[in-house]
Design a protein that fits this description.
The complex is a heterotrimer of chains A (about 525), B (about 325) and C (about 375).
Chain A: E1 25-34, E2 37-47, E3 52-56, H1 63-70, E4 78-83, E5 86-87, H2 93-99, E6 101-104, H3 116-120, E7 127-128, E8 132-133, H4 135-148, H5 166-179, E9 184-188, H6 196-211, E10 215-219, H7 223-229, E11 232-237, E12 240-246, H8 252-260, E13 280-288, E14 295-301, E15 305-309, H9 316-324, E16 330-335, E17 338-339, H10 345-351, E18 353-356, H11 360-364, H12 371-375, H13 396-410, H14 426-439, E19 444-448, H15 456-471, E20 475-479, H16 483-489, E21 492-497, E22 500-505, H17 512-519, H18 529-532
Parallel strand pairs in A: 3-10, 3-11, 6-9, 9-10, 15-20, 15-21, 18-19, 19-20
Antiparallel strand pairs in A: 1-2, 1-4, 4-5, 7-8, 11-12, 13-14, 13-16, 16-17, 21-22
Helix pairs in contact in A: 8-17
Chain B: H1 2-19, H2 23-39, H3 46-71, H4 79-93, H5 100-123, H6 129-147, H7 157-163, H8 166-184, H9 187-196, H10 200-204, H11 209-235, H12 245-257, H13 269-288, H14 295-320
Chain C: H1 23-36, H2 38-43, H3 45-64, H4 71-96, H5 104-118, H6 125-149, H7 154-173, H8 184-191, E1 193-194, E2 197-198, H9 199-217, H10 219-229, H11 231-236, H12 241-267, H13 278-288, H14 300-319, H15 324-349
Antiparallel strand pairs in C: 1-2
Helix pairs in contact in C: 3-14, 4-9, 4-12, 4-13, 4-14, 5-6, 5-7, 5-12, 6-7, 6-12, 8-12, 9-10, 10-12, 13-14, 13-15, 14-15
The chains are: A alpha/beta (about 525), B mainly alpha (about 325), C mainly alpha (about 375).
């Protein structure tokens, strides 16, 4: 049975373990805030020896922060991490690793220029005279390791690992962790690049690892796999564990619903959606977001609020960024009947397509600058009535007045427009970004999951604003990971799965349940404009 | 069909260059040698080659440290200052053979101290390496100027006797490569590589990331001291308070031409060696082609700009191809 | 419901009184209303601090050596400050955009030599100035294109360009001493007086006004701060990031050229490495003015204070009889202290900016290390 202070390497194979009282690792009531944003809000996860626990949750649910706290990468503001009942002081990843907590990263932590062998045995290299690495022994150990683990691929361990195809790199990363037989093993999205055989192999090794007494944490978006491999499932949403049950006790669609959100909010009820115009404003024909992925056909009418749903990473981001001109995809896009080839956001905005980005911190805000400067950065739509004399620039006086008016209209709470935008709350920051986009007078507004980390009152304001815009004829594409929001605020919802539209739900079919089912790939509904007719 | 194979051929070559970056500098150096022999046949003599190797030694030595810093993801501008202060100290205080016992340790100690300051500010202060080393460069240059206001002085002849022979040149060259090979195959070397491309695994594995980050700047400074010593004692036979300044650009040029990526995590000293040799060859070609030696600086600068652009092209092409399916 | 943008007439009366006055009056008063805003004032703190420091240094010197404050002396110091000020214009733009320009000295020397060679007397000035300007634009464009479009590290590219310029100069002057005379007009540009005030100082004041207008009142200025602050966000908002970034290098080259001409006029001669002292000082002036080395924060008005501080430092050291060596040491220390200082202050006010990444753990902290 594992105890604290465990050596990192070694071949001790403990006999199959009975589940004892104190869990191998318990994170209790973790809270962590980054400035005004609460990433973790009292999250608790328990890992038991001999058990594989899956952690499921959208990005922004706090999943990545939780993993960082457990592995010592960051420290929680409140709550504690206990190993076999003893509280830990994880002040660095080195300490966590020394205590036996090992992680295979989602974004591989391999060093591309070092060989496979060097990566496999990093930190545990055999040394000559205690200084220089014994290259021959290293090679032998590495090859032996791969053989013992029965890794389903042959490679030359002397090659730089960066030269291997991604799938094989992933195998090296996994082998690195598996070889150490850590008491606590974390696998973060390990199957992303793996083929079927490799996945089978990984699950076999994970089960072995668990059987030998380790506690395994498996993080994945692929619910099929979650059901296949784990004994317990924990769902994280909004920084808190909202569901923690053994696999047998929760169905797939229940799982998805708890991930996507299931709340009844009064402020959504009673507000009716404005009528939709006849003409399609934005048309997508034969759009392929990625090589080999399915084709997308979509029509968004004037004044329509089209929702984009589904689990994260199914192509929503690529679709919106492609429309906004920041990325490219194949296919035809038409704006008001005219073919549009947006090679840059500058061009897209000038044509009238505006994107409010997903991550306001890295993609939206200029944190060191004032609210006013954040409101008026970049170009506007060409030909909009408010474009003044010198290009897109208004007079200084006009700008000060306009900033004040925008702040009032959107309820941006701050002492003045010169305040640094980085000090505002998440909701206010989001409002600044919305105001910025609206100041560009778009004809089509794209919103990428903007209600994440935003308080309830602000969400209501945002949706009220969207309704207003729709009444004025703006076409809106609203991507959200919250199914309830989509149901309450959209005319139609296109649920995406695997880089294509899995289902296109009309108002009559628009329920959280249907969104959840489509989100995991269940085919029942029409999934394109043509089929809907 | 034909077009497809032609384009894959080009692409394969590009991939070869980006995967084995050592190929390009070796090829360029070979071409440079041929041009040089063509222009001036007497250069094919062994003694000429050895002399050329000897003149390149300071650059190779200082570039050894620069290579390590760049692989770790940083840049060290203060090597110029370290070389200058070494030269100044040597020419003003280490004039007799007896002084060596005292002043050699002092010089290396000074270098180590400078490197330590750089390393600490970058690692624990979180300050960008280019601005920290810009500051220390200025401080060191000022100190050098204070110690030796004008060019001149002489350096302990014993040093020149020891290091100036042909045999010594060859031994030192091999020695530099050996140092790299050893460093590369220690845990320190492994950590340095991981610094430049995500410290995750290294931290996880229990490697001392912060220590390595600081040490790499100390290492760079020490190689700069060695380079400054050799330059002043053997090549110029005198000291100068600005001895190191031309070496800054040249050390970057040698590393960049040698294929070590400026983004960090990739590369090696072997390429840098050929980069340094290429620069020497080019300065010889400049002279033999009838231009004055002044054109060398122009040539070095042009090479740096061109090679940096060439190496930036692949990422540009990759980015513009994203997602078109 | 009202549309997002409301024209000025429909808006309610702002708090600033006398708004009924004519347009340019309004501009000034609106600027005043900015000044009344405490949040705005707080953000100018570092610039104010820089001026206070400069003043303190000035007073310190005059206490020790009252002759320093005499106009005959101060005016000369201001001439030198003007030259540095021009060299630092470009560096300000480049650093604001998140880059660095090490080709300033080479460009200055090139401009000085060219103007002395092409225009040994006033008659040829009309030919010389456009030539120098054209070369500056070419140099700036090359730097800008490689850095902005090829995304190569600015430090390396501009360092190489500096060698190209300096090497080219060396080669063309054959290492000779230089050119001993400059046209009268050029000299007047630097040391001439109008009513006792140096011409170059007036030029500097005008330049400061233009630069401030560019930074504060134009789309270019707004975009520049955006690019330096968050390149991706700027791009998504529609800023032409590459164009803006490239432009900063062109501005830098032009500013350096002007500084080089002025320097030649001040010295009365031109030689191949006349610009060499200006590398450290131009960058230091920008940093002393409160700009962040990583970009997105700072102003030329601060750089002006930084330039003054450096000249006063020079004077202080001269008064204390410390040589040029100590000056270099001082520059280095100033660079380190000011960078450490501004970084510390920004870090404290931006707590919580690290690690909160929603979109797929795609990013690490923007490390400037590898991106230079």
């Amino acid at each position: 049975m594992s105890t604290g202070g465990i050596p990192n390497t070694g071949d001790d194979r403990d006999p199959p373990v009975r589940l004892s009282d104190a869990p191998a690792l318990a994170a209790v009531g973790l809270c962590k805030s980054y400035g005004p944003v609460r990433a973790l809000d009292g999250a608790s996860v328990t890992l038991r020896a001999g058990e594989i626990t899956s952690l499921v949750g959208q990005n922004g649910s706090g999943k990545s922060t939780l993993v960082r706290v457990i592995t010592g990468d960051t420290r929680a503001d409140a709550g504690e991490v206990l190993m076999s009942g003893r509280p830990l002081h994880l002040h660095s990843t080195r300490r966590a690793a020394a205590l036996g907590i090992s992680i295979a990263f989602q974004e591989l932590s391999l060093v591309p220029d070092l060989s496979v062998a060097e990566n496999l045995l990093i930190g545990a290299e055999p040394l000559l005279a205690g200084v220089v690495v014994d290259k021959r022994k290293l090679k032998r150990l590495a090859e032996g390791l791969l053989e013992d683990l029965e890794v389903p691929a042959r490679f030359d361990v002397s090659l730089p690992v960066g030269e291997l195809p991604l799938a094989e790199q992933q195998l090296v990363e996994l082998a690195r962790v598996l070889a150490r037989r850590p008491p606590i093993a974390v696998f973060d999205e390990p199957t992303a690049a793996l083929g079927e055989t490799a996945v089978k192999w990984l699950f076999a090794r994970m089960s072995e690892l668990a059987d030998s007494g380790s506690a395994v944490l498996f993080i994945s978006h692929r619910l099929r796999e979650v059901y296949e491999i784990s004994q317990r499932i924990v769902v994280l949403r909004n920084g808190r564990d909202v569901l923690s049950a053994s696999k047998a006790d929760v169905s797939e669609s229940e799982l998805v619903q708890s991930m996507l959100g299931q709340r009844l909010l009064q402020e959504f009820e009673g507000a009716s959606l404005p009528a939709v115009g006849k003409e399609p404003l934005l048309e997508l024909e034969g759009v392929h977001l990625s090589r080999g992925k399915g084709s997308i056909d979509l029509r968004v009418r004037e004044g329509e609020i089209l929702g984009l749903g589904g689990l994260q990473g199914q192509g929503q981001r690529e679709l919106l960024r492609g429309l906004a001109g920041r990325e490219t995809f194949a296919g035809t896009v038409r704006l008001a009947g005219k073919r549009l080839q947006a090679r840059s956001p500058t061009y897209a905005i000038q044509q009238g397509i505006c994107l409010i980005p997903e991550d306001r911190r890295t993609e939206g805000l200029l944190s060191g600058r004032s609210i006013r400067e954040n409101l008026f950065v970049g170009v506007m739509r060409r030909g909009s009535a408010e474009t003044r004399g010198r290009g897109d620039r208004t007079s200084h006086r006009g700008e000060l007045l306009e900033a004040r008016s925008l702040m009032r209209r959107f309820g941006i709470r701050a002492t003045s427009q010169e305040v640094e935008v980085g000090t505002l709350s998440g909701g206010n920051q989001q409002k600044v970004l919305i105001a910025r986009s609206l100041a560009k007078k778009p004809k089509v507004l794209l919103l990428a999951d903007i209600t994440r980390g935003v308080d309830v009152g602000t969400k209501a304001d945002i949706f009220a604003t969207l309704r207003e815009l729709a009444r004025e004829g703006v076409a809106i594409v609203l991507y959200s990971t919250d199914a309830t929001e989509l149901v309450a605020n959209c005319h139609r919802v296109a649920v995406m799965y695997d880089y294509r539209i899995q289902a296109l739900l009309e108002k009559s079919d628009l329920t959280e349940e249907n969104i959840a089912r489509a989100a995991v790939g269940i085919e029942e509904r029409p999934n394109s404009e043509a089929a809907a007719r | 069909m034909k077009r497809a194979s032609a384009s894959t051929g080009w692409r394969k070559q590009a991939r070869l260059i980006s995967r084995r970056p050592v190929v390009l500098p070796i090829v360029l150096f070979a071409i440079g040698l041929l041009v040089m022999f063509h222009l001036q046949s007497r250069t094919e003599s062994g003694s000429f080659m050895i002399t050329m190797l000897q003149t390149s030694l300071p650059l190779m030595c200082v570039s050894l440290g620069q290579t390590a810093v760049i692989i770790s993801g940083g840049l060290d501008l203060s090597v110029a200052g370290v070389m200058s202060i070494t030269s100044a100290l040597a020419a003003s205080h280490m004039t007799g053979n007896g002084d060596m016992a005292v002043w050699l340790p002092i010089m290396f100690g000074t270098g180590a101290l400078a490197g330590l300051v750089n390393g600490l500010l970058v690692t624990f202060g979180g300050l960008p390496s280019f601005i920290v080393t810009l500051g220390t460069w200025s401080i060191l240059d000022g100190l050098a100027l204070e110690i030796l206001p004008t060019q001149g002085g002489s350096i302990a002849p014993g040093l020149e006797n020891l290091l100036g022979s042909n045999a010594a040149t060859i031994i030192i060259s091999i020695g530099l490569l050996a140092v790299w090979a050893v460093v590369r195959s220690t845990r320190f070397g492994v950590t340095v590589f991981s610094l430049g491309s995500g410290e995750g695994a290294a931290r996880q594995a229990g490697l001392h990331v912060n220590t390595a980050k600081v040490s790499v700047y100390v290492f760079s400074a020490l190689t700069a001291v060695g380079a400054g010593l050799f330059y002043s004692a053997v090549v110029t036979l005198s000291g100068s308070p600005t001895a190191g300044d031309p070496f800054l650009l040249q050390s970057f040029a040698a590393v960049v031409v040698g294929g070590t990526a400026l983004s960090g995590g990739k590369g090696g000293f072997l390429g840098t060696v050929f980069g340094a040799l290429l620069l020497s060859v080019i300065s010889q070609i400049v002279v033999f082609a009838g231009f004055q030696s002044y054109y060398s600086e122009l040539a070095y600068g042009a090479i740096l700009v061109i090679m940096v652009s060439v190496y930036s092209l692949p990422t540009l092409i990759a980015k513009s191809r994203r997602n078109t399916g | 419901m009202k549309s997002a943008v409301v024209s000025a007439d429909e808006e309610e009366r702002p708090e600033v009184p006398h708004v009924r006055r004519r347009r340019h009056g309004d501009g000034v008063l609106q600027a005043l209303s900015l000044v009344r805003d405490p949040a705005w004032r707080a953000r100018q703190a570092s610039i104010v601090f820089a001026y206070v420091l400069a003043l303190v240094m000035f007073v310190a010197i005059t206490i020790d050596s009252p002759g320093f404050a005499a106009w005959s002396h101060v005016s000369v110091v201001l001439e030198q400050a003007a030259i540095l000020g021009f060299a630092a214009i470009g560096e300000t733009f480049v650093i604001l955009g998140g880059g660095l320009d090490l080709s300033v000295p080479g460009m200055m020397s090139t401009a000085g030599i060219l103007v002395a060679r092409i225009a040994p007397s006033d008659g040829q000035l009309l030919k010389a100035i456009p030539v120098v300007l054209a070369i500056a634009v070419v140099v700036g464009c090359v730097n800008g294109l490689i850095v902005a479009y090829l995304r190569a590290p600015p430090l390396i590219v501009t360092l190489g360009m500096n060698s190209v310029l300096a090497g080219g100069l060396l080669a063309s002057t054959q290492g000779l001493a230089g050119i001993g005379t400059v046209a009268h007009g050029v000299a007047q540009f630097a040391v001439g007086r109008v009513g006792g005030i140096p011409v170059c100082l007036l030029a500097w004041v005008v330049a400061t006004g233009i630069v401030s207008w560019l930074l504060g009142r134009t789309g270019f200025g707004r975009s520049l701060y955006a690019v330096g602050s968050n390149r991706e966000a700027a791009a998504l908002a529609g800023v032409r990031v590459q164009r803006v970034e490239a432009m900063t290098y062109v501005v830098s080259a032009i500013g350096s050229a002007a500084a080089g001409i002025m320097l030649a006029g001040y010295l009365g001669q031109a030689y191949a490495d006349m610009g060499d002292g200006y590398l450290f000082t131009a960058i230091t002036a920008v940093l002393l003015g409160g700009a962040l080395i990583t970009g997105g924060s700072g102003h030329y008005v601060g750089t002006v204070a930084g330039a003054l501080m450096l000249l006063f430092l020079d004077g202080l050291l001269a008064v204390l009889n410390l040589g040029p060596a100590i000056l270099e040491i001082a520059y280095g220390c100033v660079i380190l202290v000011s960078v450490a200082g501004t970084t510390l202050m920004t870090r404290r006010s931006r707590r919580g900016d690290t690690q909160e990444r929603g979109a797929g753990d795609r990013s690490r902290e923007a490390e400037v290390e590898g991106s230079v």
